[in-house]
Amino acid sequence: MVRKIVSLAAALAIAAPLFAFDATKPAVRRGLCAESLIEAMNRERAAAGLRPLHLNAALSAAADDRMRDMFTKHYFEHVSPDGIDPFTWAERHGYDYRAIGENLAVGYRTAGDIVDGWMHSEGHRENVMGSTYDDVGIAIADGAPRRPFGGPTVVALYGSR
After folding, report:
1. Rounded distance, CA 71 to CA 65, Å?
2. Per-residue pLDDT reduced to its tens digit, 30-56
3. To 10 degrees, what angle do helices 34-47 and 111-119 make?
4. I need a labelling partner for 25 at 20 to 30 A (CA). Which of 33, 67, 106, 134 fits?
5. For residue 101, what is the enclosing H or E element?
6. Does residue 152 contact residue 143 with C-beta atoms inside 8 Å?
7. Continuous segment of H or E residues that includes residue 6
8. Which residue pairs from 51-55 have beta carbons closer than 8 angstroms and sit at least 24 positions apart in sequence?
9. Closest CA to 135 of 127, 143, 147, 144
10. String of DSSP letters for 118-131
């Protein structure tokens, strides 16, 4: 019994820094989550005869770090104010890619709305429908990294190895 409590306490202590940035809870309660986004993207891909995207842990960790950086430095751009591009985040998490892309969204309330917005933007659509992409990493935060935007904010990193 004591061993289980100590193990649980150690696990919580290790995960505590993750809870400090967990701005996703309200968005998840509204039904916006990585799984619902992937499902919406995969519906579009299936309609075009493309294979589905799969959630990738390394790309999700990269998307989380990317999100953290946007909130810390108050920007909403594909390249950070200090010149870090989306590809760097994937490399930092050991994702050795052949192809990689990034979609950002802010202010859309549902997965369907986000994907619909991406499908009406040529560059974003190319990422959702990228036939070379197999993997996707998703990060969702309830707020927005800068004004005048309102949340939620989404980072999607697409990749293939």
Report:
1. 10
2. 579 999 999 999 999 999 999 999 999
3. 40
4. 134
5. strand 99-106
6. yes
7. helix 2-20
8. 51/134, 53/133, 53/134, 53/135, 53/136, 53/158, 54/134, 54/135, 54/136, 55/135, 55/136, 55/137, 55/138
9. 127
10. HHTSHHHHHHHT-T
The SS3 of residue 132 is: coil
Block residue for tokens 């989404």: 154
Q: With CA atoms as reference, report the closest residue to 140 among 87, 90, 96, 103.
A: 103
Tokens 């986004």 correspond to 37
Low-confidence ranges of the chain (pLDDT < 50): 1-29
The pTM assigned to this predicted structure is 0.81
Q: Which two tokens stand for residue 10?
A: 């150690």
Q: Which two tokens stand for residue 127?
A: 């990422």
To the nearest 10°, report the CA torsion of 44, 87, 138, 26: -130
Q: Which two tokens stand for residue 138?
A: 């998703």
How many Å apart are CA 104 and CA 80, to the nearest integer? 13
Q: CA 119 to CA 41: how far, in whole Å?
A: 9
Inter-residue contact 93 to 59 (CB < 8 Å)? yes
**148-160: pLDDT as tens digits:** 888 899 999 999 9
